[in-house]
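STRUCTURE:
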């Protein structure tokens, strides 16, 4: 997602939440400048839309040590075996899960290449 697409998505979200909570008719106010300031602040603070994994192929292609949260809320670490097959381990468990056991969609919480 490009920076401009993120700005548009954030702008719509912020504008909707501001105007829904105003005690006056929002058409009587100029909220555009405030929304732009809010977007700039959110992006400057480091916000990036999390990547969502929706297919088994995307899941299997994740780099080693990528951390995800699946639809069930389980936090898992990608841990490929020596033969290249991808497994996932829950943070507090020792047994591995196959990629097929991960409930999709999943959100990428940490990816080693993205952090460098």
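SEQUENCE:
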């Amino acid at each position: 997602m490009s920076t401009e697409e993120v700005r548009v998505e954030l702008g719509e979200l912020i504008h909707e939440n501001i105007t829904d909570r105003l005690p006056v008719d929002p058409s009587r106010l100029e909220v555009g400048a405030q929304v732009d300031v809010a977007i700039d602040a959110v992006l400057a603070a480091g916000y990036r839309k999390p990547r969502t994994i929706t297919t088994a192929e995307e899941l299997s292609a994740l780099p080693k040590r990528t951390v995800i949260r699946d639809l069930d809320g389980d936090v898992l670490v990608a841990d490929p075996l020596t033969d290249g097959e991808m497994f996932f381990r829950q943070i507090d468990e020792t047994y591995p899960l196959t990629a097929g056991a991960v409930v999709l969609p999943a959100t990428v919480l940490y990816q080693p290449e993205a952090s460098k």
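REMARK: The chain is about 35% helix and 20% strand.
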